[in-house]
Structure formats: structure tokens, C-alpha cells
Amino acid sequence: MTAGFVPPPYPYDRLDRFKPLGEAMDGGLVDLSIGTPCDAPPDAVIAALSSSKAERGYPPSIGTEPLRRAAQAWMSRRFGVDVPVGQIGACVGTKEFVATTAQWLKLRAPSRDTVLFPAVAYPTYEMSATLAGCRAVAVAARADGSMDLSSIEPVDAARALMLWVNSPNNPTGALDDLHAVAAWGRLNDVPIFSDECYIEFTWDGPPRTILESGLDGVIVVHSLSKRSNLAGLRVGFYAGDAELVTYLQEVRKHVGMLVPGPVQAAAAIALGDDDHVAVQRDRYRWRLERMASALTQWSGLEIAMPAGGFYLWFDAHDGWKFAERLAATAGALVSPGDFYGAGGSQNVRVAVVQPEDRIELVARRLGLR
């Protein structure tokens, strides 16, 4: 049989060889590699999982009315944007949405075959193109980490199914000019998909959504995984351009992409509560500052706070060597930057997703008090 697609190694599986270094230490491994929230969601959200009675029937693929109205109210309250409920849809966590949407757009526009995405980015943007049988074309970054839209070749723009923007960016924390991205998309007739799952953790200025520039030609993707510590529930939503949202809602019905009913009920409660998010922001801010200070003192490198997100991203000269050295010295597992594109090979990403006592344990192992 002729060999076809062979899935590449999952990036984080490549870190397994470093785990024994931390596991052998008193207190064990401190995993700062995957961005998995560790803090508890609100009690009311957990209670909703067992009291909705929504487990008894098939949930609507597009999202329940309460969930979509909660998303609508949150976007209005938080960002001052008005999105009709009909232009909002639920997704089974945003990773599946990122990974599969290129396939559905290729069916809609078979003459186009290119997915544009940031050069240093969450790897699923690139993988989505591969899974759809499309070209993956990375967009170069400016010095501040934002996308350099002027670097996109006209031939690539003409062939583009979509352009992904991620602001705040994972892993860099950089913020993009979303008005400029939306304008570029409209000028070039390229749908813009704005992944804003870290938007609540914007440190430089107020949080900004691409929907502030209008709904035409843009889709925003939001997740409750980071905002509300609900990564295990797999729930998010997409919203924006009426024609695009309607098309995706109909396709996804046929695929059977259904967020479980109790999860939708819990998500509606979470979106209605901003207080727990304010608490979470304070936690991440403290952890970022403490870890940046500890690593700077230990390594002598310049490790700055990000503009957004809960990752430290810095030039370590060799990402893999730094990751191994940190695992051996402090029992901390971090991500080498080449997980996020060739442009990150010298870098390291540190996810501050462990409780304060675990962050302090790393600092003590580094010889700091």
C-alpha cells in the first residue's frame, strides 16, 4: 500500500525524556509545559453540571439558547459589541474548531487551497491545513511579534481560504492590530478567524476583539478553557459574519459536533460571572512576575512580561538545551520554542499553570528565596 499521511509526533510527547529528572526530586515534577489550568472554576458552574437535566436528550449543535445568549451578553458587557444570537455557535472546545474549519471552507471554496497563520504560533493552525489537504503558509512577524501583513505574497492572498490571527498570541503573548487584520481580510476577500482564547489575560491595555471592527468577513473564536478553568469540559463558541457562521453551523450539524447538554448549561453560568475571571487574572499576573524574576536571576537572560496570555516567551539561545537544563536543575518541564514554528527554535515557553506553592518550589530549587 502506498504510504499516505503519517501523523507527526505530538509535540509535548517529545518532552517525556525530561520528566524523570523532575520526578526524582523531592516534591516531584513541576509541569510548566502544557497550558492546562490548575485552579478551580466557580462552584455554581460545577453545580450546573449535575442539575441541568440536559443529559437526557441530544443537545443542539449550534448551542442552546441560554449558552448563546450568555455569550452574546458577555461580548456586549466586556467589549461593547453587539452580535445577534443567530450569529453565534457552540464548539467542542476551540481546538477542534481550529483543526477542522479549513476542511469545511475548502468544500465551500474549492478554488482556494491556502491557510495563512502566524509564523510563531499554536501548532494546530498549521496542522489544520495539512488535515484539509491545503497549503500552510506562515505569515512573518514584526519585531514586536505581531503579524507583518505586508509580507503576504499576492498569490498566497489570492489562494487563501482563511487567515488565522491569535491575539494575545500563544506562545509569544504579542498583541496584533486587529482592526488592520480585519481591513486586510476585507480588502483581499479572505475570511479572518481571530482566536481570542487569552483575551481576558491582556496586560498591555484593555482587551480587544476583532469584532470591534465589525462582523463582516470575520469570525471570532472564544474558549472557556482558560477564562474559567474549564479545559476538561471542552466548550467554546464562534461568532461573527452571518454567512460564514450559518454555513459552519449547518456543516457542523452533519458532522455531529455536539457540546454535551450539561456542559452547555455550565458554560452559560460561567460566561455570566466576571468576578472569578478577575481573581484568575490576579493569580496569573503574580505567577508570571514571580517566574520571570526567578528565571532572570538564575539564567542571566532577559525575561520580560508578556503583553498578554499566561506564558513567558524568551530567547534562550537553544530551546531544547535550556529546557533540559531547567528540568535537571529545578525539576520544571517547559516547552522548547520549535513546538511553535521554526522561528521559535531558540526560544522557550513557560506556562505558569501551577499553584503558587509549586511556582515557589521551582524558585527555591533555583536557589532563590
Radius of gyration equals: 21 Å
Main structural class: alpha/beta
Strand order of the largest sheet: 2-8-7-6-5-3-4
* Percent helix: 25-40%
Summarize this structure briefly.
By secondary structure, the protein is of the alpha/beta class. The chain has 13 helices and 12 strands.
What do these coordinates show?
This protein is an alpha/beta fold and about 375 residues long. The protein has two domains: about 10-40 and about 275-365, Aspartate Aminotransferase, domain 1 (Alpha-Beta Complex), CATH 3.90.1150; about 45-270, Aspartate Aminotransferase, domain 2 (3-Layer(aba) Sandwich). Helix content is about 40%, strand content about 15%. It contains 13 helices and twelve strands. A seven-stranded mixed sheet has the order 2-8-7-6-5-3-4, with helices on both faces. Strands 9-12-11 form a three-stranded antiparallel sheet, with helices on one face. Strands 1-10 form a two-stranded parallel ribbon.
